[in-house]
Design a protein that fits this description.
Strand order of the largest sheet: 1-2-3-4-5-6-7-8
CATH topology: TIM Barrel
Number of domains: 1
Oligomer: single chain
Shape: globular
Helix content: 40-55%
Radius of gyration: 17 Å
Number of helices: 9
CATH architecture: Alpha-Beta Barrel
Number of strands: 8
CATH class: Alpha Beta
Protein backbone atom coordinates (compact mmCIF):
# COMPACT_ATOMS: atom_id res chain seq x y z
CA UNK A 1 0.00 0.00 0.00
CA UNK A 2 1.19 3.51 -0.77
CA UNK A 3 2.65 5.64 2.00
CA UNK A 4 0.18 7.21 4.41
CA UNK A 5 -0.43 10.95 4.52
CA UNK A 6 -1.87 12.37 7.77
CA UNK A 7 -3.89 15.59 7.56
CA UNK A 8 -4.05 16.36 11.31
CA UNK A 9 -0.91 16.56 13.46
CA UNK A 10 0.28 18.70 16.37
CA UNK A 11 3.49 19.43 18.26
CA UNK A 12 1.60 19.63 21.56
CA UNK A 13 1.54 16.43 23.60
CA UNK A 14 4.88 15.32 22.12
CA UNK A 15 8.13 15.15 24.09
CA UNK A 16 10.89 17.60 23.27
CA UNK A 17 12.08 21.06 24.28
CA UNK A 18 12.19 22.54 20.75
CA UNK A 19 10.01 22.27 17.65
CA UNK A 20 12.76 20.33 15.91
CA UNK A 21 13.09 17.77 18.72
CA UNK A 22 9.34 17.22 18.81
CA UNK A 23 9.31 16.83 15.03
CA UNK A 24 12.00 14.16 15.23
CA UNK A 25 9.92 12.34 17.85
CA UNK A 26 6.87 12.47 15.56
CA UNK A 27 8.93 11.07 12.71
CA UNK A 28 10.08 8.17 14.89
CA UNK A 29 6.45 7.32 15.67
CA UNK A 30 5.39 7.81 12.06
CA UNK A 31 8.12 5.52 10.73
CA UNK A 32 6.82 2.66 12.89
CA UNK A 33 3.34 3.01 11.38
CA UNK A 34 4.13 3.76 7.73
CA UNK A 35 3.09 7.43 7.90
CA UNK A 36 5.17 9.35 5.39
CA UNK A 37 3.74 12.89 5.34
CA UNK A 38 2.23 14.90 8.20
CA UNK A 39 0.23 18.12 8.00
CA UNK A 40 1.24 20.12 11.08
CA UNK A 41 -0.33 23.12 12.76
CA UNK A 42 -0.37 25.05 16.06
CA UNK A 43 2.70 25.41 18.23
CA UNK A 44 4.35 23.89 21.26
CA UNK A 45 1.66 25.32 23.54
CA UNK A 46 -1.57 26.18 21.76
CA UNK A 47 -4.06 28.87 22.66
CA UNK A 48 -7.85 28.88 22.28
CA UNK A 49 -7.90 32.53 21.22
CA UNK A 50 -4.35 33.51 20.27
CA UNK A 51 -3.38 37.15 20.15
CA UNK A 52 -1.70 38.24 16.91
CA UNK A 53 1.65 37.85 18.66
CA UNK A 54 0.85 34.36 19.93
CA UNK A 55 -0.52 33.35 16.54
CA UNK A 56 2.71 34.41 14.87
CA UNK A 57 4.79 32.59 17.49
CA UNK A 58 2.93 29.31 16.97
CA UNK A 59 3.22 29.57 13.20
CA UNK A 60 6.92 30.36 13.49
CA UNK A 61 7.40 27.15 15.47
CA UNK A 62 5.76 25.13 12.69
CA UNK A 63 7.78 27.01 10.06
CA UNK A 64 10.89 25.82 11.89
CA UNK A 65 9.70 22.22 11.64
CA UNK A 66 8.97 22.48 7.92
CA UNK A 67 12.41 23.99 7.33
CA UNK A 68 13.94 21.22 9.46
CA UNK A 69 12.24 18.33 7.62
CA UNK A 70 10.48 19.50 4.46
CA UNK A 71 10.44 15.90 3.24
CA UNK A 72 8.09 14.87 6.06
CA UNK A 73 5.96 17.87 7.05
CA UNK A 74 3.52 20.25 5.42
CA UNK A 75 2.56 23.34 7.41
CA UNK A 76 -0.94 24.78 7.84
CA UNK A 77 -1.21 28.35 9.14
CA UNK A 78 -3.13 28.73 12.40
CA UNK A 79 -5.46 31.77 12.33
CA UNK A 80 -7.81 33.53 14.72
CA UNK A 81 -10.66 35.22 12.82
CA UNK A 82 -11.28 37.51 15.81
CA UNK A 83 -8.15 39.33 14.61
CA UNK A 84 -9.11 39.72 10.98
CA UNK A 85 -6.31 41.85 9.55
CA UNK A 86 -3.64 40.09 11.60
CA UNK A 87 -4.94 36.73 10.38
CA UNK A 88 -4.98 37.93 6.78
CA UNK A 89 -1.41 39.18 7.17
CA UNK A 90 -0.40 35.84 8.68
CA UNK A 91 -2.09 33.94 5.87
CA UNK A 92 -0.16 35.97 3.31
CA UNK A 93 3.10 35.60 5.24
CA UNK A 94 2.95 31.85 5.79
CA UNK A 95 1.07 30.65 2.71
CA UNK A 96 1.26 33.42 0.12
CA UNK A 97 4.94 34.16 0.70
CA UNK A 98 5.96 31.15 2.76
CA UNK A 99 6.07 27.37 2.63
CA UNK A 100 2.69 26.55 4.22
CA UNK A 101 0.04 24.83 2.11
CA UNK A 102 -3.17 25.02 4.18
CA UNK A 103 -5.15 26.81 6.88
CA UNK A 104 -6.16 25.63 10.35
CA UNK A 105 -9.09 27.18 12.24
CA UNK A 106 -10.06 26.13 15.74
CA UNK A 107 -12.47 27.55 18.34
CA UNK A 108 -11.94 31.33 18.45
CA UNK A 109 -14.99 32.02 16.23
CA UNK A 110 -17.77 29.84 14.86
CA UNK A 111 -16.92 29.37 11.24
CA UNK A 112 -20.33 30.51 10.03
CA UNK A 113 -19.41 34.05 11.23
CA UNK A 114 -18.91 36.77 8.64
CA UNK A 115 -15.38 37.47 9.95
CA UNK A 116 -14.20 34.35 8.15
CA UNK A 117 -15.24 35.44 4.67
CA UNK A 118 -12.12 37.50 3.78
CA UNK A 119 -9.84 34.74 5.07
CA UNK A 120 -11.64 32.03 3.11
CA UNK A 121 -11.65 34.12 -0.06
CA UNK A 122 -7.89 34.67 0.20
CA UNK A 123 -7.23 31.00 1.00
CA UNK A 124 -9.19 30.03 -2.11
CA UNK A 125 -7.07 32.42 -4.21
CA UNK A 126 -3.97 30.72 -2.83
CA UNK A 127 -5.51 27.25 -3.41
CA UNK A 128 -5.00 26.45 0.27
CA UNK A 129 -7.48 23.97 1.82
CA UNK A 130 -9.00 24.97 5.17
CA UNK A 131 -9.17 22.47 8.02
CA UNK A 132 -11.88 23.59 10.43
CA UNK A 133 -12.27 21.93 13.82
CA UNK A 134 -15.88 20.85 14.30
CA UNK A 135 -17.63 19.17 17.19
CA UNK A 136 -21.12 18.49 18.47
CA UNK A 137 -20.99 18.15 22.27
CA UNK A 138 -23.88 16.90 24.35
CA UNK A 139 -22.62 19.14 27.16
CA UNK A 140 -22.59 22.17 24.87
CA UNK A 141 -19.87 23.58 22.64
CA UNK A 142 -17.47 26.34 23.55
CA UNK A 143 -18.76 29.78 22.61
CA UNK A 144 -16.69 29.94 19.42
CA UNK A 145 -16.62 26.21 18.64
CA UNK A 146 -18.00 25.25 15.24
CA UNK A 147 -20.37 22.46 14.35
CA UNK A 148 -20.48 20.70 10.98
CA UNK A 149 -23.65 22.70 10.31
CA UNK A 150 -21.62 25.91 10.69
CA UNK A 151 -19.08 24.59 8.22
CA UNK A 152 -21.78 23.63 5.72
CA UNK A 153 -23.07 27.21 5.91
CA UNK A 154 -19.59 28.64 5.28
CA UNK A 155 -18.90 26.23 2.44
CA UNK A 156 -22.15 27.24 0.81
CA UNK A 157 -20.98 30.88 0.77
CA UNK A 158 -17.61 29.88 -0.71
CA UNK A 159 -18.07 27.12 -3.30
CA UNK A 160 -14.65 27.96 -4.74
CA UNK A 161 -12.86 27.02 -1.50
CA UNK A 162 -11.80 23.56 -0.28
CA UNK A 163 -12.72 22.63 3.29
CA UNK A 164 -11.89 19.76 5.64
CA UNK A 165 -14.40 18.97 8.39
CA UNK A 166 -12.16 18.27 11.37
CA UNK A 167 -13.13 15.16 13.36
CA UNK A 168 -16.26 14.81 11.20
CA UNK A 169 -18.00 16.74 13.95
CA UNK A 170 -17.14 14.34 16.79
CA UNK A 171 -20.69 13.01 16.72
CA UNK A 172 -19.99 11.64 13.27
CA UNK A 173 -23.43 10.20 12.60
CA UNK A 174 -24.78 13.75 12.69
CA UNK A 175 -21.68 15.42 11.29
CA UNK A 176 -21.40 13.34 8.14
CA UNK A 177 -25.02 13.99 7.23
CA UNK A 178 -24.63 17.73 7.91
CA UNK A 179 -21.87 18.19 5.31
CA UNK A 180 -22.66 15.53 2.71
CA UNK A 181 -24.48 18.01 0.44
CA UNK A 182 -21.46 20.33 0.20
CA UNK A 183 -19.15 18.82 -2.38
CA UNK A 184 -16.33 21.19 -1.42
CA UNK A 185 -16.10 19.65 2.07
CA UNK A 186 -14.01 16.57 2.80
CA UNK A 187 -14.16 14.91 6.20
CA UNK A 188 -11.31 13.62 8.34
CA UNK A 189 -11.47 10.71 10.72
CA UNK A 190 -9.10 11.75 13.50
CA UNK A 191 -9.45 12.68 17.12
CA UNK A 192 -11.93 10.24 18.66
CA UNK A 193 -11.80 6.67 19.84
CA UNK A 194 -12.04 3.98 17.14
CA UNK A 195 -15.69 3.14 16.62
CA UNK A 196 -17.21 0.46 14.43
CA UNK A 197 -19.07 1.89 11.48
CA UNK A 198 -17.52 5.38 11.38
CA UNK A 199 -15.40 4.95 8.27
CA UNK A 200 -18.01 2.77 6.60
CA UNK A 201 -20.66 5.47 7.07
CA UNK A 202 -18.34 8.18 5.80
CA UNK A 203 -17.69 6.22 2.61
CA UNK A 204 -21.36 5.38 2.19
CA UNK A 205 -22.63 8.93 2.74
CA UNK A 206 -19.91 10.98 1.00
CA UNK A 207 -17.97 8.56 -1.16
CA UNK A 208 -14.45 7.40 -0.39
CA UNK A 209 -13.01 10.32 -2.39
CA UNK A 210 -14.12 12.81 0.27
CA UNK A 211 -12.67 11.01 3.31
CA UNK A 212 -9.20 11.77 4.72
CA UNK A 213 -7.05 10.04 7.30
CA UNK A 214 -6.10 12.21 10.26
CA UNK A 215 -4.64 11.09 13.57
CA UNK A 216 -4.70 14.21 15.79
CA UNK A 217 -1.32 13.15 17.17
CA UNK A 218 -0.05 14.05 19.89
CA UNK A 219 -3.54 14.06 21.39
CA UNK A 220 -4.06 10.60 19.91
CA UNK A 221 -1.71 7.94 18.55
CA UNK A 222 -1.26 6.80 14.98
CA UNK A 223 -2.15 3.19 15.78
CA UNK A 224 -5.62 3.80 17.22
CA UNK A 225 -6.56 6.16 14.40
CA UNK A 226 -5.21 3.93 11.64
CA UNK A 227 -7.39 1.16 13.08
CA UNK A 228 -10.45 3.12 11.96
CA UNK A 229 -9.37 2.62 8.36
CA UNK A 230 -7.46 -0.65 8.48
CA UNK A 231 -10.32 -2.42 10.24
CA UNK A 232 -13.13 -0.89 8.22
CA UNK A 233 -15.27 -3.12 6.03
CA UNK A 234 -14.63 -1.18 2.84
CA UNK A 235 -12.73 -2.07 -0.35
CA UNK A 236 -8.95 -1.90 -0.34
CA UNK A 237 -9.15 0.74 -3.07
CA UNK A 238 -11.17 2.94 -0.72
CA UNK A 239 -8.60 2.48 2.03
CA UNK A 240 -5.85 3.63 -0.34
CA UNK A 241 -7.83 6.76 -1.16
CA UNK A 242 -8.44 7.59 2.51
CA UNK A 243 -4.92 6.87 3.71
CA UNK A 244 -3.15 9.10 1.23
CA UNK A 245 -4.40 9.44 -2.30
CA UNK A 246 -7.20 11.87 -1.45
CA UNK A 247 -4.89 14.21 0.45
CA UNK A 248 -2.38 14.11 -2.38
CA UNK A 249 -5.14 15.23 -4.74
CA UNK A 250 -6.41 17.91 -2.35
CA UNK A 251 -2.96 19.46 -1.98
CA UNK A 252 -1.98 19.06 -5.62
CA UNK A 253 -3.21 22.52 -6.76
CA UNK A 254 -1.26 24.48 -4.15
CA UNK A 255 1.83 22.29 -4.47
CA UNK A 256 1.75 22.84 -8.22
CA UNK A 257 1.30 26.59 -7.76
CA UNK A 258 4.29 26.69 -5.40
CA UNK A 259 6.45 24.39 -7.49
CA UNK A 260 6.57 21.98 -4.56
CA UNK A 261 5.89 18.66 -6.27
CA UNK A 262 6.26 15.96 -3.63
CA UNK A 263 7.44 12.50 -4.68
CA UNK A 264 6.86 9.70 -2.21
CA UNK A 265 9.05 6.64 -1.92
CA UNK A 266 6.45 4.83 -4.01
CA UNK A 267 7.46 7.05 -6.93
CA UNK A 268 4.16 8.88 -7.35
CA UNK A 269 3.94 12.65 -7.56
CA UNK A 270 1.35 14.95 -6.06
CA UNK A 271 1.47 16.85 -9.34
CA UNK A 272 -1.30 14.72 -10.83
CA UNK A 273 -4.37 16.57 -12.01
CA UNK A 274 -6.74 17.27 -9.11
CA UNK A 275 -10.20 15.74 -9.08
Amino acid sequence: MAAIWDVHCHLSGVQGTTPEKRADRLIAYADRMGVRRMCLFMGLDWSYEPTPEKMRQENDEVLRVVAHRPDRFFGFVYLNPAHGQASLDELNRCVGDGSFVGVKLWVARRCSAAELDPLVARAAELRAPILQHTWIKITGNLAGESTPQDLAELAGRHPEAAFICGHSGGDWELGLRAVRGRKNISVELGGGDPAAGFTEMAVRELGAERVLFGSDIGGRCFASQLAKVRGAEIPEASKRLILGENLRQLLAPILQAKGMAAIDEDGRSTNSQPR
